[in-house]
Amino acid sequence: MSPHEAERMLAFDAEHIWHPYAPMPAAVPAQPVVSAQGVRLTLADGTELIDGMSSWWAAVHGYRHPDLDAAVTGQLGKMAHVMFGGLTHPPAVRLAERLVALTPEPLTKVFFADSGSVAVEVAIKMALQYWRSQGRPERHRLLTVRGGYHGDTFGDMAVCDPVNGMHHLFADVLARHVFAPPPPLGYAAEPDQAYLDELARLAAAHAHELAGIIVEPIVQGAGGMRFYAPEYLRALREIADEHGLLLVLDEIATGFGRTGELWGCDHAEVAPDIMCLGKALTGGYMTMAVTMCTDRVASGITSGEAGVLMHGPTYMANPLAAAVASASIDLLLSRDWRDEVDTIEALLTSGLDGAAELPGVADVRVLGAIGVIEAREPVDVPAVQEIAMENGVWLRPFGKLIYTMPPYVCTDDEIGHIATAMWEIAESLHAPA
Ligand SMILES: *Cc1c(COP(=O)(O)O)cnc(C)c1O
Hints:
Shape: globular
Strand content: 15-25%
Largest sheet: 7 strands, mixed
Radius of gyration: 22 Å
Bound molecules: pyridoxal-5'-phosphate
Strand order of the largest sheet: 4-12-11-10-7-5-6
Number of helices: 13
Structural class: alpha/beta
């Protein structure tokens, strides 16, 4: 692309196109990507950047993987899409077979959604409709923890962290749920009995009006990149069982090996009643997510007055997305993904070693293929991105967080580049005045 063409494109983009969580017109122009291959993005001027973000946790196999490209083009030769009302097709059935086999045993039913946010909406709807079907419509609230992120639609926003999720903006229209304090930080931290007691107390106090509990297992992603001990997840499963609540696990960020186990809930050896998957589901190729549930939830809903689950997106179970999702899962399982993630964990741990002592840094944490530097103050995003790009790396910090969740297929050298970029960013941060 000529410099002139690129400039024209960027000017139109800034003036007319919304970007995520951005003002209009744009305050800072976007970077123009013209292609991507392996773990690298190519910009309009030919610059290549290692994608430290995996396109927001999704592109675990990198870009233009031959198997994934073939899955899409192969399906394209049959049909791109067909409605799912009254019709079905091989890509949907093949993907559902894989998901039922791979996810915790009690999860047997699959709802195909078109994005992670919608999958969480469906999960909430399932939980509420389940209780309505039992003749208990007053059980319509959810217990969750602060620091969570579950998507951007209104139902989802109501269970996101009230501060990060800007609840005050929509205070009068968001559903009111029950919030416990954020789980104490640290995957390996000793469980805090006072916190466990508080969870139990809140659940008991509100059980009569609660449909379920919703959390991200082990890693809270966009709400703060916080890791917590498996003990808290086990406690939530026990609390749910004690009060008959449905445990909803949002595995949209944690699923498919990112945390070092295939599912976040595997760390605690618990199974949810409802589970959401997205992001890496299609290997970063297409938008698709799923909401899975148990026989009990499904039959509970179906035996109720409505007799059906009241949801059905136009692009439900899109065949292109379903085909590439199956191919992505096959590819993941065909490789030693656990070894890849463990290697990334070790390289990020050693690569970020010592950064916690820098004056502008509050905390450094690594779990699975996730590395986080938490600054003491909110960072200057364009300045931080410039340092990353000078190091040949694409990172997208938010708030106080500079983090990476690289493609699993990165070489040791590529992870080294990402860690070096994060170190240099950390060094550039100033201590609070
Ligand atoms: C990204 C994310 C979502 C929302 O998914 P979209 O596909 O962006 O709508 C929901 N929950 C979690 C945990 C996520 O990380």
